[in-house]
Amino acid sequence: MELSNLTLLNGDIFDANAIGAIALNSQGKALFQSALLHEFDRVVMLLHENGGENRLVGNMISGELRTQTLRVGLSMLKRSIITGDNNELITCLLEGEIIWDPQEILERLRTEVNAFDQPLRERMMFMEFARFLHMYVKSKRYLQAGCSMDSYNCILMALYHWARMEVSEAGHYPTPAVWEQVKSLNNSVYKLYEELTVSGETMEQRIQLVQLACEFSLVSKMSDCCKWFLDLLKERKEPWSIEELLMHSELKNVEPELPFVLRKLASRSLIREIASWSDAGGGYRIRYTF
């Protein structure tokens, strides 16, 4: 679409700082209809080189059409592709019409996601494994404390991340409607989802059943799902401190989960812990190596 047409589409002056734009219409083919389209006919996502956060910048009416306009930084869009934290951005990228893309940035990102080759797949599998582990551990702790509803919520989230792992492992990019993807794969994780949500057992029994399945999955999938991270540890001979690991741009997205992953990998002897005396801290500092 011509730039002049984009200006008409928005019913406003085109943002000169934008490096790309996508329009998502309410009658599109996406299975998951963006929540931003609620009571709007169209979402226009304007991509910018800088800016880590997305923000709504305007609601417009052109004739009978209502348009929601979203401005997003390129770094945030790339992060959302890996983390899946912003379904709205992913839906716009994959299902919207690219209307302004002079540097073909949006086209390349869409092609990368649709191809879903390495290393994107490995990075996503590690991300989902880390979050799966974190939610599983929290569910166990809540259940031990007698907080059944909180435990249920955490194990449900653990299943969600497990589902995204399974879809990724099957060679597909996890879409916002991930449970429909898992159902089509006839995967055991979907049966666990049904067992947790509709079974006639007590809540505690359902949680415990899924926790047992999660524990088994953690052990069986750990090596494959953490391959990207294990390769990162191999990149240098010196052991890594957790602070050094968190300085890596790809690991900032798993900062809350990384301690859980490191301990789990060490307990399974997939990585080694090395303790060295720290004068500053007055104790032993743990570093990690392959």
TrEMBL record:
It comes from Paenibacillus forsythiae. InterPro entries: NT_sf, NTF-like, YgxA-like_substrate-bd. Residues 19-118 form the Nucleotidyltransferase-like domain. The lineage of its organism: Bacteria, Bacillati, Bacillota, Bacilli, Bacillales. This is Nucleotidyltransferase-like domain-containing protein. Residues 125-221 form the YgxA-like substrate binding domain. Pfam families: NTF-like (PF14540), YgxA-like_sub_bind (PF22339).
